[in-house]
Design brief:
The protein is α/β, with parallel strands linked by helices. Helices cover 40% and strands 21% of the residues. The structure holds pantoate (PAF). Pantoate binds next to strand 2 and helix 7.
Length: 250
């Protein structure tokens, strides 16, 4: 596995590798969910590029940004194990050479659900993903369905700007209890990890979103939202001050 820490180096390494190119953009703190994205990319492309970049513009809460885990050694090992060809570690100064003067904003879906709870979040996500896409120029890019709203917005942006990239949605990876794997789970105590599984269980009940909200509150979650949108139920809750999101098809 080659490691690139500049755009120049990434482009140089990329030019030596065969097409097609699969791309997995991440913010690190990699887990089995990311490994699944890498396995899909590996199976469907000749070359797989992984990026690890904790994108500051998508954090509306600076404390959340500061607390974001940095596990580069473990991430590198996971990347190597899963056959990544190039690990790209973009630098903020290089990616945001414009100091975020130019940005992508979507004026509809990005203001609902996560976007409503976290103003500006999706501007940051869409902007960084477009920048990453412009450099990597992948044939396919892989996103987890745990962040379903993010995946849909990225797919729509890709279509809107005629980018020749296939957006591949990969089903959420869950642990045995049903808890969706997430880098944030690392911040939960062992007891809270047990409790957190009840979020998915509750979302699967045949009850209204208002009933689901009440049930989650009774179970000790602080509920940010439970909302039905386009045949999916989306939820964001807090447990031990850790914000967890999940969604299920209705
Ligand atoms: O899902 C993530 O890890 C991030 O939002 C992404 C897509 C890598 C953009 O920073």
């Amino acid at each position: 596995m080659k490691i690139a820490d500049s755009i120049f180096e990434l482009l140089r390494l990329r030019s030596e590798l065969d097409k097609s190119i699969g791309f997995v953009p991440t913010m690190g703190a990699l887990h089995e969910g990311h490994a699944e994205l890498l396995r899909r990319s590996k199976a469907e492309n000749k070359t797989t590029i992984l990026s690890v970049f904790v994108n500051p513009t998508q954090f509306n809460d600076p404390k959340d940004f500061e607390k974001y885990p940095n596990t580069l050694a473990a991430d590198t090992a996971l990347a190597e194990k899963n056959g990544v060809d190039i690990l790209w570690l973009p630098r903020k100064e290089e990616l945001y050479n414009d100091k975020y003067r130019f940005r992508i904003s979507e004026n509809d879906f990005s203001h609902l659900l996560e976007g409503r709870a976290r103003p500006g979040h999706f501007d940051g996500v869409l902007t960084v993903v477009l920048k990453l896409f412009q450099v990597v120029k992948p044939d396919r890019a892989y996103f987890g369905e745990k962040d379903y709203q993010q995946m849909e917005l990225i797919r729509d942006m890709t279509e809107s700007f005629f980018l020749p990239i296939e957006i591949v949605a990969v089903p959420t990876v869950r642990d045995q209890s049903g808890l969706a794997l997430s880098s944030r789970n690392q911040r939960l105590s062992p007891e809270a990890v047990q409790e957190a599984a009840k979020l998915y269980q509750t979302l699967n009940l045949k009850i209204t979103s208002a009933e689901a909200t009440m049930r989650l509150q009774e179970l000790g979650f602080k509920v940010d939202y439970v909302k039905d949108y386009n045949k999916r139920r989306y939820a964001a809750v807090f447990l031990e001050d850790v914000r967890l999101i999940d969604n299920v098809e209705l």
